[in-house]
Amino acid sequence: MPEAVRFGVNYTPSEGWFHHWLDFDLDSVRADLDSVAALGLDHIRVFPLWPYFQPDRTLIRPRAVEQLLALADAAAERGLDVNVDGLQGHLSSFDFLPAWTRTWHRRNLFTDPQVVEGEAAYLRTLAAALADRPNFIGMTIGNEVNQFAAGPHPDPDRISEAEAEQWLGRLLAACAEAAPGGLHLHASYDAAWYQDDQPFTPAHSARLGDVTAVHSWVFNGTAQRHGRTAPQTEQHAAYLVELSKAWAEDAHRPVWLQEVGAPAPLIPAEHAAAFAEATIDAVLDCPDLWGITWWCSHDVSRNLADFPELEYGLGLLTNDRKPKDIAHVLAAAESKAAAPRSTALVVPSAPALRSRCAPGGPVFDAWFRLAADGARPTTVLDTRTADHDHLTARGITEVVTPDQVLPTPQGGTRS
Prior knowledge:
The chain is an alpha/beta fold. It has helices at 26-37, 50-53, 62-77, 113-130, 161-178, 191-194, 202-207, 222-226, 231-234, 236-244, 272-283, 325-332, 362-372, 388-394, and strands at residues 6-10, 43-46, 81-87, 90-91, 94-95, 136-143, 185-187, 212-216, 255-260, 289-294, 343-347, 377-381, 398-400.
């Protein structure tokens, strides 16, 4: 459990986006990192593009690895720690998969033995290269890799829950083998928590790896349904953090809000700072929070084509590295100790019932009714409601089911 909450940013280069690896300019990177460090943040999350680093299954480009190390060293010079995502994978609506896994060479990303061994070799190589850097936090297997395993991806590599768990175990072990003592994890987008047929499950997120990662995006129907200033929107990230705890076996497993951002037009630019302040305040009231890593550092250049409109303006800083109002919110954020949450809402343990927890579902709605009543809710699995040791370890003194949480006026009290 960390002594203080970490505050950082997902590093998006101001020049060339993640394609900057093709024309790597260390001076430009240094200038970007200067602008990040000036905000007083303590870490960045970094994204090598997988096909650029491993264009052939048995070729991991030494020059690309050297560039990654140069970036990490530049971050260290500015007091920034570094987490590295390996399998990119998927970023900002674009897929980046090496040619040796697609079309004429189509093989399942998660189950083909040669592909998995290639992935493990790649992660081992990056982790081993970074292992001696004192500012290296650890590896994330990849960014939201679960989106390749089910719909709505247009061409998914279908797998079972057991195959997903085997794949995660194999690649987490590769990271730990190459960089013992690092904080190694995997990161799913919110389908892992909300989508009934997603093979990457809440239990995988909350039990595998050294920390639970959650990615909170309110364009998932939350902001559309409730509006930009509703508690459901401003506390969506806190809800995901607390939802994740139901499946954790460690009562105080740390949770990392690894991605959260203010997507326009649902969160208009002039309201982004207020959204960020409300989101951060709510999340800091969650015990066992490892850190908050905002998406993202710099805007995407308008010179680049075909991004969804919302992607261009998510940066804390502009393309010329000037901080926006939202940057000052993150810069001013301070860690605080959060008291235990004593009221737990029962959630279904069956993965096929995850949609009950999604926006508009009965668990989601009940959680926010409890929050409106000032209950500071957390969650507990339906299989653990009578587990006294578990409840005591988490500081839970009251357990309620969704059908017990009746609508009350905003700010009212439960009878």
